[in-house]
Amino acid sequence: MGIKERKAREKKQLRQQILSAARELFVNEGYENVSMRKIASKIEYSPTTIYLYFKDKADLLDSVCKETLLNLLNTLEQLKRDINDPVEALRKSGKAYVEFGLEYPQDYKLTFVIRPQFQKGLGLQEGSVGEKVFDYLRAMVSECIRQQIFRQVDVETTGQVMWSAVHGVTLLLIDFPDFPWTEKDKLIDTVINTTIEGLKA
Amino acid sequence: MGIKERKAREKKQLRQQILSAARELFVNEGYENVSMRKIASKIEYSPTTIYLYFKDKADLLDSVCKETLLNLLNTLEQLKRDINDPVEALRKSGKAYVEFGLEYPQDYKLTFVIRPQFQKGLGLQEGSVGEKVFDYLRAMVSECIRQQIFRQVDVETTGQVMWSAVHGVTLLLIDFPDFPWTEKDKLIDTVINTTIEGLKA
DNA sequence: GTGTTATACTTAACAGTGTTAAGTTAAATG
DNA sequence: CATTTAACTTAACACTGTTAAGTATAACAC
Predict the structure, then answer these.
(1) CATH classification at residue A157
(2) Residue A32 belongs to domain with CATH number
(3) What is the pLDDT of chain A when averaged over all its residues?
(4) Domain containing B6: what range?
(5) Any chain A CB within 8 A of the CB of B116?
(6) CB B201 within 8 A of CB B149
(7) What is the pLDDT of residues B124-136, one digit of tens each?
(8) Chain B stretch 165-194, residues whose beta carbon is closer than 8 A to a beta carbon of chain A
């Protein structure tokens, strides 16, 4: 019974191949500037083959995005294990969050800006990766409050403030790459540090 | 010599008509889903006529956004006249900024998220309205630093931190209307206050 | 008033897009 | 060996932004 399994393996491989090609093109040239034909030509298949593996172009981007969000979650959870001080963990997590957004701007914008626009009704879907990322942030903030490092404001608000800050700087850096920003890392650090300082007792 | 003036007036009128039609369609259906043909049909001209008034679709979007920014700038400058305390002015301006975004969410996204995506290379151009808005913010922050209320970090960075915060919370509130946010005004105030506190000495 | 020029707009077309229906080819099954 | 099934391709549709060429009308000079 090895034949069916080989076939399934090959299908999975091609799916992954499409996904990788799409990611590379999306990241380098931007979602709008990448056509299905371009992706197809990169993997040396006809354009219509893609539709045997993905519903449409949005679904393809969706899948690319889900992959990278899982990466973000991995990165963050790895980080958590190595750091004890909750403030330091929050700082590093914030930085990792922004850097992820800058590394995969298309994915970031799709998930946190574009998808909500077309998928109204739910903020972050139940059980979605996006929700898990916010859960992670909440846990961290919660620890800072518990240890009385942060002011005793409610956890939800505090988490949302933190999210606003990193979300804001991420999008500004993505959307206005030619604005005369302060040196990028300095800006990110200052945003995170300022917010943390402001949240302290 | 009234003929030339009448002609000029008519040209201006048609330009404005195109602009209004474009704004309405962009806001209601989203930039990508609006074609030049759709705009043209709305104003009952041929599609190519638009190109006599605007370089291309991006330029049209640009002009729509410029209008939006002028409105924002007006709102802000009205505010400035009434307040003396620079921190209070900054707080109120931040709030006004966010509220402007929430009142015209589609316009805000068009200007600060969608346009940069399609009109690359725009830092904030010399003399542009966007630059004036940031100048406004800079002046305010500068005063806070001069009066030694804020830490002596450079003005640019400080301004950018402030912008990140308000931009972030504005977009989150727009894009995830069904997320279990803290009460809206409380969240906005906390974001602004936290950032201001973090910037203080 | 007539001929010419400039202005404002339109028609037709190009090269590209996402997507689908129908067709092909080769492998697996009975 | 015949038939069915799966994987992939070809051709086409209805769109997109944009441009070059054409047209009709209004303004101007004489």
Answers:
(1) 1.10.357.10
(2) 1.10.10.60
(3) 90
(4) 1-54
(5) yes
(6) yes
(7) 666 678 888 999 9
(8) 165-169, 171-172, 175-182, 186-187, 190-191, 193-194
